[in-house]
Write a structure and sequence with these properties.
By secondary structure, the protein is an alpha+beta fold. It is built from four helices and 15 strands.
């Protein structure tokens, strides 16, 4: 591998990722490498400063992996992704960021797999999404189907004004909640329109109450 530059190595590594993913590498203050994808281009140039509010800045500030949606105020277009800081002998050196398109701008349905094919379900008809036995299931009042996305990926895709993560295994449509009942240790149980009861775990209870305003 003599003579192989870091830039050339990164170009090769980018080929391992999906065409939808842009890759950015920064030191602690500025970007040193950027490869845009076919779906999203934040128009970053090597030497550009790492802006406050970006996912890279959040990872560098916290010293931890960050994964979330960033709105259009920073680069002019919304995106979501994951930034992972890297260290050299326990000294923070920079971070690597994977940038994905914000799918909420284009999609308005969730296409579930059924026994005999696939069925597009409008967001408004989704009651809740559940992970069970390492598989993701989308529930409506009439249908249940599986989906390849994780709950974390659904958090990026679904409209944030309607869907709330309430448990490590559940995302619920707030418009499909019939009642909210108190449970032990400051947690809650949600009764959905179809009668199913879904727990709100303690780690999500404060966040849940804040979003629903009670």
């Amino acid at each position: 591998m003599e003579g192989l530059s870091l830039h050339s190595l990164l170009d090769v590594m980018v080929e391992l990722f999906s065409d939808e993913i842009s890759i950015a590498v920064s030191n602690t203050t500025e970007y040193v490498y950027y490869c845009p994808s076919k779906r999203i281009n934040l128009k970053i140039e090597p030497g550009d400063p790492v802006k406050e509010g970006t996912i890279a800045h959040k990872a560098l500030s916290s010293g931890q992996k960050v994964s979330e949606l960033i709105d259009r105020d920073v680069f002019g277009i919304p995106y979501h992704g994951m930034a992972v800081p890297f260290y050299n002998h326990e000294k923070l050196e920079g971070c690597v960021t994977a940038i994905y398109p914000a799918l909420t701008d284009g999609a308005s349905v969730v296409t579930i797999k059924t026994e005999d094919g696939w069925k597009p379900i409008p967001f408004v008809d989704v009651s809740y999404i559940e992970v069970h036995n390492r598989k993701t299931y989308v529930h409506t009042n009439e249908y249940v189907g599986s989906h390849k996305h994780t709950l974390q990926e659904f958090e990026y895709i679904l409209p944030r004004h309607s869907f709330v993560r309430c448990h490590r295994s559940f995302i619920v449509n707030v418009h499909a909640i019939k009642h909210i009942y108190p449970d032990t240790h400051s947690t809650f149980v949600l009764e959905m329109e179809n009668g199913v009861q879904i727990p709100v775990s303690q780690s999500y209870s404060s966040y849940f109450r804040k979003l629903l305003g009670f």
